[in-house]
């Protein structure tokens, strides 16, 4: 699972509101629906991640974190042979 908890924490620490993202960063096309998607840990486009990194002067890894699936499965990655 991908979580945007680090992004939410960063916004809170920097006192950046969703209003600011929506209305003051118009060059990046962050509309209300897009903002709600990452605020609710839903998928967003790479363009959105790029915009957030530019606005916040950070890297993608600063915005999100990965948690293994909670279904108890431990899948091994498939073998990829390059020949």
TrEMBL record:
GO terms for molecular function: DNA binding. It comes from Candidatus Intestinimonas merdavium. It comes from the Bacteria. Residues 7-69 form the HTH cro/C1-type domain. Coiled coil: none annotated. This is Helix-turn-helix transcriptional regulator.
